[in-house]
Task: inverse folding
């Protein structure tokens, strides 16, 4: 029976800010973001990598934070929903979600938006089938998905690169 | 200003925080000195508790306490909220297992630790000695009675509800045609994306308890908790934060709703409990598991003469706060939107060693519509009548409204359908769907897949009473804040109620400062969100609050100007008196007025669903080519959020029809313990869905003319999908009688159909050739 917790230091970047924390090696990145760094926008829905509610960006790629240990984030650039938002206005993707009623309870929404943002950043011309395929890894229990797909389709123009 | 926010697709206010990840769900809350609770749950489905020893667990650094039944006087039992019949009392659930465990997942102890991780470590060091007892695995086993969950009751049958209309036996005795079938719906539940959680804070100095994480029925739960924990109700605040879905399952009073507040007071520190998904699958209310033996009597020209039947409903181990609702609804609502004069359906509730059962969206209605609509298609085929025409002939005519449904006993309950013309919604559905054109595809093999269609009609009850409360308060800047007894479960109340308030007050919608919902501090006597009631009950209470606020302003202004309230004129937020006296709402800052709405009747949204599927007989895979739902919901407040409810509800129904299944083994162990096993609809499963909502038939029973509409989408899905698959595979004589319609199950039915044909030596009919299978 251990009488002292094992703690490890971890240094990484979150939403452009350097962070330095000390966590148990077994702590997930999701729990670290939520409870140590108090960035509660990333949600935990299953802890086994199926629902996608915990989706964040790690070095630009969409990753399930519940399947990563906090210590694995050493030296990485992490972006959460908070880093994809600003105070003044909704981003085009967020505004599109609102316009299309692509959320109800809001619990899956940060993961949906993060995944959609990662997809459109890479593939601004993604069609409905492609969007459905990628978002099939994010579970929603409220909307039935159709409005979410519509919202992501409608946000594509904001991601299209201007001609050279 | 004549506002028209009601009827407008106003974008939601709550979205502004949700899309930014700034929602505040219970796990987002923090508190100084917080301890984390982890529940030790029974790993045995049925047994006598010999001992629990937490000595080893208490030695772990960071573990502060382990609470067991010994620490809880009683322990208290959770009373039923709906249909609280004395017959159910012996089957109610204690807040912690006492003497026996009756399902895998039943709470046996509460560990309080510095972190959830340490608490979970501690679970492994709690030694329980349980003498295992043979489990009751289902209704049939329960009925045998050789294994009892509650020995003193000498039965596993908690109750039988009976629904009666006219004289079914007489109708059947004379009927020229009768068909009898058995159908089953599977156990599944209203899984919410956010698991349950609570944060309880006890202030010993003031003797006040604050519980965050409340949902659905906070006022009722406060009443239960107060009694159980020995505090006056007004010493407890139930705080409703943002809620990640309800669907009937979240918000009822669970064991944890006592255990966590008790723990906080026991140790004198704030306690937070958040369940994980594995726990949620075994501890949140299950639903839907039922089997029915039903017969229908008809005249030769296709008029339904009677319905008779018996349902067995698997209740799990205890009668939960609303556990009786589904079973009762199966009996009362089997006739649906059809005029059936003579009915007798009884519904028996059986206790089994599985997770207890509560309501899930459209409780009993999803089940009963599957049973009935399957039967209608079978009968139409027998009688050689077109399925659409058969339904049209039997729909309740508009001239028969209000239409009395079968009366339920005990808890004698009459219910009547308020308004609607079902032929109109059916015809609209058929026209928009393109039924006539698509009909040609029925049973046809096209590019390796069999095509099938189905249509069905539904009613959806809503607006449960008895009461709701709303309060308005004027802020210093003259804006108005709205406080509701209604609860938010994701359905958009902060926007919808702002629309209703702005229209009634005739002020711009941005002068509604906010809509605050659910918490017990907001109104004197709230009821919450269940049975699709928020718009009707909350909205109507809000209209009364507006009237009372205007009266209160009139009285205050009259006093100020020394005139009578009758001389005061309120236009928007301007208050005018005799001789040109004029003030605005800012003068009346702090003025507050409550309104209520009392109601004993239900509203009935009506409609029809139609589907076109393509089935691959080689793999059992089903694709929905097109699915249309048409629903008339009376007066529509926000057409955008309404359509969201319809589509969201429909996809849950499709999950129930095709995917979801909570499976137990013979030892009462839940096998579907993760989202890898319990399959939920994803974005790529059902993309071709359409919803049309209309407002042709307002409800006469509330001032808004609105109807509850959050559950209609789910109700028809099971029957529609099964009928569409049967229609597609009619050459194989495939007749689904149970759900879910998984690919293996469909494949098996096809094989059985082929076998049958080989044995009978003749084709079942249609265009199938042996060579078709080789493709």
Result:
């Amino acid at each position: 029976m251990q009488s002292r917790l094992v703690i490890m230091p971890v240094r990484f970047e979150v939403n452009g800010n350097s962070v330095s924390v000390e966590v148990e090696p077994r702590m997930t990145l999701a729990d670290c973001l939520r409870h140590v760094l108090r960035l509660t926008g990333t949600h935990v829905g299953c802890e086994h990598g199926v629902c996608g509610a915990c989706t964040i960006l790690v070095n630009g790629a969409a990753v399930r934070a519940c399947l990563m240990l906090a210590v694995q984030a050493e030296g990485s650039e992490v972006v959460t929903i908070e880093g994809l938002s600003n105070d003044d206005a909704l981003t085009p993707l967020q505004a599109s979600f609102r316009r299309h009623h692509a959320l109800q309870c809001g619990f899956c929404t940060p993961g949906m938006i993060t995944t959609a943002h990662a997809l459109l950043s890479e593939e601004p011309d993604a069609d409905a089938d492609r969007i459905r395929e990628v978002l099939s890894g994010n579970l929603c229990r409220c909307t039935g998905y159709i409005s979410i797909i519509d919202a992501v389709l409608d946000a594509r123009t904001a991601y299209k690169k201007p001609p050279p | 200003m004549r506002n028209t926010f009601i009827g407008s697709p106003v974008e939601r206010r709550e979205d502004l925080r949700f899309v930014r990840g700034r929602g505040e769900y219970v796990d987002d809350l923090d508190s100084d000195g917080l301890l984390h609770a982890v529940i030790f749950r029974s790993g045995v489905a049925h047994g006598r508790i010999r001992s629990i020893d937490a000595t080893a667990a208490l030695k772990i650094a960071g573990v502060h306490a382990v609470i067991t039944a010994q620490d809880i006087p009683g322990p208290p039992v959770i009373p039923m909220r709906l249909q609280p019949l004395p017959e159910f009392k012996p089957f109610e659930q204690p807040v912690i297992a006492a003497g026996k465990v009756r399902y895998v997942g039943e709470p046996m102890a509460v560990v309080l630790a510095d972190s959830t991780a340490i608490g979970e470590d501690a679970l492994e060091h709690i030694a329980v000695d349980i003498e295992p007892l043979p489990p009751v695995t289902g209704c049939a086993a329960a009925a045998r009675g050789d294994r009892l969950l509650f020995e003193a009751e000498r039965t596993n049958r908690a109750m039988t509800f009976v629904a009666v209309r006219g004289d079914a036996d007489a109708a059947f005795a004379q009927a020229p045609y009768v068909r009898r079938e058995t159908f089953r719906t599977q156990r599944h539940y209203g899984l919410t994306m956010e698991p349950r959680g609570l944060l309880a804070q006890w202030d010993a100095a003031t003797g006040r308890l604050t519980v965050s994480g409340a949902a659905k029925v906070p006022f009722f739960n406060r009443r239960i908790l107060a009694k159980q924990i020995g505090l006056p109700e007004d010493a407890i605040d139930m705080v409703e934060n943002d809620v990640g879905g309800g669907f009937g399952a979240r918000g009822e009073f669970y064991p944890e709703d006592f255990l966590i507040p008790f723990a906080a007071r026991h140790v004198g520190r704030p306690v937070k409990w958040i369940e994980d998904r594995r726990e949620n699958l075994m501890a949140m209310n299950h639903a839907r598991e039922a089997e029915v033996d039903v017969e229908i009597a008809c005249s030769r020209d296709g008029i339904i003469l009677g319905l008779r039947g018996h349902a067995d409903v698997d209740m799990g181990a205890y009668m939960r706060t609303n556990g009786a609702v589904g079973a009762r609804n199966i009996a009362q609502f089997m006739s649906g939107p059809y005029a059936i004069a003579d009915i007798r359906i009884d519904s028996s509730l059986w206790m089994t060693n599985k997770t207890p059962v509560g309501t899930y969206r459209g409780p009993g209605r999803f089940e009963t519509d599957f049973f009935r609509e399957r039967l209608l298609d079978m009968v139409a085929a027998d009688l050689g009548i077109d399925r659409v025409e058969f339904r049209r002939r039997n729909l309740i005519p508009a001239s028969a409204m209000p239409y009395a449904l079968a009366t339920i006993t005990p808890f004698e309950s009459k219910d009547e359908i308020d308004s609607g013309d079902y032929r109109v919604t059916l015809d609209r559905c058929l026209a928009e769907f393109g039924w006539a054109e698509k009909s040609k595809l029925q049973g046809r093999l096209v590019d390796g897949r069999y095509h099938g269609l189905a249509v069905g009609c539904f009613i959806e009850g809503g607006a449960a009473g008895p009461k709701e409360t709303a309060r308005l308060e004027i802020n210093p800047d003259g804006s108005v804040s709205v406080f509701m007894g209604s609860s938010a479960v994701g359905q958009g109340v902060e926007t919808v109620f702002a629309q209703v308030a702005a229209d009634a007050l005739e002020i711009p919608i941005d002068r509604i400062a906010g809509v605050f919902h659910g918490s017990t501090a907001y109104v004197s006597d709230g009821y919450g969100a269940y049975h699709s009631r928020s718009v009707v009950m909350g909205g109507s209470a809000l209209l009364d609050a507006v009237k009372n606020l205007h009266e209160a302003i009139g009285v205050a202004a009259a006093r100020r100007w020394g005139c009578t309230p009758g001389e005061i004129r309120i236009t928007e937020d301007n208050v005018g008196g005799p001789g040109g006296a004029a003030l605005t709402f800012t003068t009346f800052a702090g003025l507050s007025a409550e309104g209520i709405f009392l109601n004993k009747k239900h509203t009935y949204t009506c409609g029809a669903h139609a589907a076109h599927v393509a089935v691959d007989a080689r793999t059992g895979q089903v694709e929905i080519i097109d699915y249309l739902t048409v629903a008339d919901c009376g007066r529509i407040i926000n057409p955008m959020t309404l359509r969201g409810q319809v589509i969201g509800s429909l996809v849950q129904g499709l999950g129930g029809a095709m995917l979801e299944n909570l499976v137990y083994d013979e030892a009462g162990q839940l096998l579907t313990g993760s989202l890898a096993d319990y399959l939920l609809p994803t974005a790529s499963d059902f993309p071709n869905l359409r919803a049309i909502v209309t407002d042709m038939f307002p409800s006469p029973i509330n001032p808004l003319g609105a109807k509850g509409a959050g559950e209609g989408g789910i109700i028809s899905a099971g029957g529609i999908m099964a009928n569409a698959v049967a229609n597609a595979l009619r050459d194989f004589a495939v007749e689904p009688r149970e759900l879910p319609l998984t690919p293996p199950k469909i494949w098996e039915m096809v094989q059985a159909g082929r076998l049958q044909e080989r044995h009978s030596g003749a084709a079942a009919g249609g265009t199938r050739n042996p060579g078709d299978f080789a493709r």
